[in-house]
Amino acid sequence: MTTYDDRASLTDLTTTAERVRSSVEEVIEGKPEVVRLSLTVLLAEGHLLIEDVPGVGKTMLAKALARSIDCSVRRIQFTPDLLPSDITGVSIWDQQRRDFEFKPGAIFAQIVIGDEINRASPKTQSALLESMEERQVTIDGTTYELPSPFMVVATQNPVEMEGTYPLPEAQRDRFMARVSIGYPSAEAELQMLDIHGGASPLDDLQPVAHAHEIVKLIDAVRTVHVADPVRRYAVDLVGATRSHPDLRLGASPRATLHLLRAAKASAALSGRDYALPDDVQALAVAVLAHRLLPTAQAQLNRRTAEQVVLEILQRTAVPAAPQPPGGLVTGRGSAALGQQPPRRL
Amino acid sequence: MSGRARLALCAAAATLLAGCALLPLVDPASWYLQAAFLLAVQTGVGAAARRVPLARSLTIAVQALVTLMLLTLSFAREQAIAGLLPGPEVFRYFGDLLQTGSDDVGRYSIPAPLSDGIRLMMVGGVVVIGLAVDALAVTFRSAAPAGLPLLALYSVAAGLSDGAAGWIWFLLAAAGYLVLLLAEGRDRLSQWGRVFGGGARAPGVAPSESALAPIRTGRRIGAVALGISLVVPLALPALDGGLLDAAGTGVGTGSGGGGTISAVNPLVSLRDSLNVDEDREVMSYRTNSEETQDLYLRIVSLDEFDGTAWKPAKRHVEDVPGSFPTPPGLGDDVLRTEVQTRISAADWYAQDWLPMPYPASQVGIDGKWRYEPVGRTLVGDHGQTTRGLEYTVKSLIVQPTAEQLADAPEPPEVLKRQFTRVPGSLPPVVAQTARDVTEGSANDYERAVKLQDWFALSGGFTYDTEVQVGSGSQAIARFLRDKEGFCVHFSFAMASMARTLGIPARVAVGFTPGSPQADGTSTVGLRDAHAWPELYFEGVGWTRFEPTPSRGTVPEYTRTDTPGTTVPNPDVPSRSSSTAPSAEPSDSESCTAAEKKLEQPCGSESPQAAFGATNDDPPWFLLLVLALAGLAVLAVPLLPMLWRIRARSVRLGAHGRTEADTAAATLAAWQEVSDTAWDFGIAPDESQTPRKAAARIVHVGHLDPEAAASVHRVADAVEQVLYAPRPRPTAGLGDDVRRMTAGLRATADRGTRLRALLAPRSTVRVAWAVSDGWIALRSRAAARWAAVLRRPSGQNS
User: Fold this and answer.
1) Nearest residue of B to residue A273, measured between CA atoms
2) Which of A232, A274, A280, A310 to mutate to test the interface with B (most CBs of B within 10 A)?
3) Which of A223, A249, A281 is at the close of a domain?
């Protein structure tokens, strides 16, 4: 029964995801891979960090994604004077009921858009920690569950910009992926002028999927199969960041988890019920790069974390000789395999 | 029985059948059983090793090791460590044995006696060929090339053995090879049958039929090929005169080299340079004897006559005594002179027996020599030869008078019995002729002289080195009828006839005294090689006769002015006057003059004796080694290609129907795709996923859409196998790979194609595998060593 449901929702998933994607792409021109990555993160129950220079459509992307799904959306404009309680909520003394009443903060929504997240003080940024990881908020000893699905889409300017506080490592680690939108191509920019010249296209955007559909899709993604070699590959990649000479800080085990979850979602988006090393490769930079801290020397050499991840991708072998699940290691099969002359690679 | 086990059995059987061709070379054939046993063990070890499974090279190594240990156990137990483990001592001993073996091969005619050396060569050769066949046919699963070692084995044997009845051995060897091919074909075909033979629903009928039909075809092809190969040579001009042919003449009767008679002679059997164009100097000597015409340099005496051949009897040898005992039968009253001769043999002249004047009384020589008392010869031990030796011989010149010979009493019974023995197969005409020729003689001496004179003077015999007397016991009869032959025939015939008359006789082989030089030395050349009869007279001993016309010198004591019945007393006085100085040179000259015709056989026969194992005529074992080495050298550059072809056929070959088998086959197909691309210059990149690797191959290789689709199909299948929870089976991957290969070949230039075929880059995997194995081995050894080191300290603490 459940199997049947899962399977059904896997095909649903592609169609639903397709709807959402085309909806978002009405607003974000010429950046299909960014849109796809946003969807991937949504389906993998992650949070998305959009980092780029001002004016390339970071907020537009976040809002378009939120609009395309029929769910509760809150937007927080991070400023240096924003307080943690503005995000999580606050208990207020209710005179009439003679009790503290909890006033939920902006975090209590299914999609939370954190605009210019690095303009808030680290203290305020840290208010997001619990909610992002554990999907709950604890105020005055009381724990409040957050709705599902729950996704934080934060935008930020590069840290070199004026008046910003770089996100603490723990905070960055909680974002599943970071994406840069980049400048549009000339053509896309021209087209954008046409569309955005009049009314904002966001206004015309209608929800194309309901929140509970998304929840179902997320469940479907969870059933995607990840074979042993793929897991091993993810572990190898993440492990390589920890010993890389150009990195002061490698990726955490949570990064491995995120990488695999994202790979599952990506596989599901492609209509596969199993993840490929290709999925992992495609997501590695987005998922890993923002968690890494290059050494001072590497920074002097203008080595970015992205470059390091790409290099690791080129140097890490894709596990192909299998000890796969349910495997080749039975009886004659393994013997036959063992007798082939080159038994490695 | 599994296909592989059957294949292994067939490989062993094929080797044994081809090895049958060696049977006529050696007598007795007990070595064959030993070889069969070793081969069986080797095959068993191979089967077990393949089951493990080890890498193929390891399998072969294990087989070789076990075989070496068994050989050690059989041949060099005393030299081995713990009786089994071959150390350097063993290899040295093997070297010695092989050396002796090759010497023996040089010494004996076919069939040779089974000495240890020969046995090692036989058993070792068969086992080595067996290993090669097993490795090729079973371990590497390509039976066809296994024909090469089999052919080498058969060729060597066939080239050396007498041509007679050779077709039986060929039939056996060919049958063995055919069986091997059939077994492999059957193995392969039955695998196809299983794969294509429809689903599991009708496993019984379809596969067996589909497998049987091709097998039948294979049998037919084999039978036809075999028939053609047997019949066609008959219709073709004879293929004489090749490499093997030279060996053949060396071994057998050769160019009528005395027919039966020469075939008899083990020494004769090794005639290498029958047709020496130039007279090479064999040795030179300086003697204090005034007259050298009687200084025949004797090598060995052939004292056993079996009707077809004269051979040296096998006798006990002992250390060389300081001075030899008095020659047997030499009485005190016979005139004798002791002469001293210093002989130096040529560097190239390797003879096991020491050429000496007869009878020698003392020899001063270095080296490992042994003394054979009956023949009074010195024989080299452990490969000792005359090569480049200088030695001094003190010998007697015995000058009996005719009276002394005529008055000789009956020889001792033992000696007479031994040296007058003739086989029953000797044609009666021999004895009859002997009686006719010697009719009216009063004593043995007269008979002997009449015989000699009949051959040399009055019988109408001509010296001809190219006669074809043939072989077998009828050869002597034929010689007596045709009256043409050379020294071997004359001496053999006279000795045989003397025996029928009750005169103890044997044949000596050696050299005539050669030509005196201006500086007082004499040189002996190849063409001075000779054979002559020795007859025994009590009171005088073994006495030389010279029945061969125009060769050597007739001994004075046999000279008769008139070939009548008169006792040759008159000769005695004339002896000194008619010294051979005139006779000797003239003799040798006549020989040289007659050489055009004569010398070849004469030279050839005695050279055979003289040469022993000289370098001119490679013994057959050398041929075997050379053939194998040649094959190996030829095969080495082709190894990458062979490995590649082999790997491809294994990867794309038949596989089982289970999920695991399919998965393995898919991975193998992918491996083949990337290796083929590599061969065409698209190096594999381990950091790429199958999908990306496929895209890269398509892009770099400029594949056409069809081939590109094939590559992607294989990549998809691999993804399924590696990453999907329930792999979707993909059929026809082999065809996909072939399409891709064709696509790559179509877009590659000629050089690339050639390189992909002959020197495929992906063969470097073999080197990797070897180095990996080596590293693993070393690290394991290091770990073990570390553990060993740690243990004592652990105990201490």
Assistant:
1) B724
2) A274
3) A223
Task: Report if residue A267 sits inside a domain.
Answer: yes
Mean pLDDT confidence for B65-92: 82
Query: Which amino acid appears at position B60 of this protein?
Result: I
pLDDT band at B5 (very low <50, low <70, confident <90, very high): confident
Mutation for testing the A interface, residue in B689, B716, B726 having most A CBs under 10 Å: B689
Task: Give the separation between CA B253 and CA B246, rounded to whole angstroms.
Answer: 12
Nearest CB among A225, A230, A337 relative to B664 is that of: A337
Q: Evaluate whether residue A338 is within a structural domain.
A: no
Closest residue in A to B691 (Cα–Cα): A278
User: Which chain B residues have a beta carbon less than 8 Å from that of A339?
Assistant: 53, 650
Q: Are residues A75 and A177 in the same domain?
A: yes
pLDDT tens per residue across span B278-289: 667 888 888 888
Burial bucket for residue A77 (CB in 10 Å: 0-12, 13-18, 19+): middle
Residue A333 lies in a domain: no
Mean pLDDT, rounded, of chain B: 75
Confirm or reject contact between B667 and chain A (CB < 8 A). yes
Longest dimension (CA), chain A: 84
Q: Do B650 and A277 touch (CB under 8 A)?
A: no
Q: What is the ipTM of this complex?
A: 0.80
Summarised one tens digit per residue, pLDDT across range A179-223 is 888 888 888 888 878 777 777 777 778 888 888 888 888 888 988
3-state secondary structure of B81: strand
CA dist., res. B350 & res. B481, Å (int): 37
Domains in chain A, number: 2
| Contact flag A344-B646 (C-beta cutoff 8 Å) | no
pLDDT attached to residue B321: 83
Tell me which residue in B56, B661, B718 faces A336 most closely, judged by beta carbons. Answer: B661
Residues A214 and A133 in one domain: yes
Domain-located, residue A343: no
- List the domain range (segments joined by +) for residue A306: 225-322
Give me the residue label for tokens 């723990």.
A170
pLDDT above 90: percentage of residues in chain B: 4
Asked if A42 and A103 sit in the same domain, the reply is yes
Q: What is the CATH number of the domain that holds A299?
A: 1.10.8.80
Q: Is the peptide bond before B53 cis (omega within 30 degrees of 0)?
A: yes
Does residue A95 sit in the same domain as residue A232?
Answer: no
Minimal-distance CA residue of chain B relative to A281: B689
